[in-house]
Amino acid sequence: LAGFFSKDQILWYAWFNQFPGTTGVILSWVLWGVGTLTAGLTAFYMFRLYFVTFEGECRAGEELAPTISESPTSMTVPLTALALLAIVAGYLGMPHLLSGGNLSLETLQLWLNSVLTSSPAAPGTPEALSRISYQELTHTTELAWEWGLMALSVVVAFAGMALAYFMYVKRPSVAVDMASRFAGLHRWSSNKYYVDELYDKTAIRGTLWLGKISHSVIDVILIDFLMVRGAAWLYEMGGSMLKYFQNGDLQRYAAYVMLGMVAILYLVLL
């Protein structure tokens, strides 16, 4: 329910909250159309996943098939808990027409409204709708449009489910024929639009290249050569020079002190 209601809310506001001007209205409708099509595609590929996994002939090998069993409770219990929480979360964002007149059910939608917004509420927004009564809302065209858009999104979702059932349960040969007919597109889709390859050639290999450069410049030259070996060389050179002055000969130390005092007196008196 969380995903179902949030999807309908997004489509509804995409339809009504038009940008300024005729171009803005058309853009809003285009966004609504893209969102509705995406909802249908989501239903299609989710039920395709279900049908391919659980329906039809077993695709596992003869040796693997007998070993298939239900997942352990360590997986099923958390998934069940998440499913129940998703149902509860859906009621926190229930649309106005299903809330029985209690618009305060839009808890999550208006939760940070006072913090994130400072301008007057625009018509059709959740802020504006929350300030009018349910009776007033029922006499507006927005409510009728919301019913219609929600019904249309449900029809599109069921169409996606039906298409997945037809292609992967009723007539699996259709999917095979389409894959061979559109081989290039199928190969592009099967390889996940080559996003992984692009990621490998840019992010991964680029990071490795930067790592090698950083190792060669920062680690080898800056840290190892200049800081570590350079510091050792400086200490070695300093020790080599100071060994002629600090050799434990007290008489020589006294001579250095006398020479220093003479130099200071010379500078002061002159």
Describe this structure in words.
73% of the residues lie in helices and 0% in strands. The protein is elongated and about 105 Å long. About 8% of the residues have low confidence. The chain is mostly helical and 270 residues long. The longest helix has 48 residues. It starts with a helix and ends with a helix. It folds into two domains: 189 residues, no CATH class; 72 residues, no CATH class. α1 packs antiparallel against α2 and α2 runs parallel beside α7. It contains eleven helices and no strands.
| Arithmetic mean pLDDT | 78
Roughly what fraction of the amino acids lie in strands? under 5%
Largest sheet: none
Overall SS class: mainly alpha
Order of helix and strand elements from N to C terminus: HHHHHHHHHHH
Radius of gyration: 37 Å
Could you tell me how far the N terminus lies from the C terminus, measured between alpha carbons in angstroms?
97 Å
